[in-house]
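This protein record is not my work; I was only asked to verify it. Take the sequence as given and treat only the tokens as open to question. I have pasted the whole thing underneath without changing anything:
***
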Amino acid sequence: MLENPMWAIALSVCIGAFLGIMTMALISAERYSKYHARVHELEHEIKQLKQRGRKPQPKKKPVRRRNA
């Protein structure tokens, strides 16, 4: 079966594609995990600020300037 070089090439391409997909899945899972941890951290911070009676400061919007 593997005596024909075309089979070996096709098999190696399939294995390489599979490994590439699995690597990208692991990278995106790690990215999602970091994102979820950051969201949880911010929710906890907002909860603590509400318990202290302070509101979280809103993000300042950039000033739009016109050229005269």
The mean pLDDT is 85.
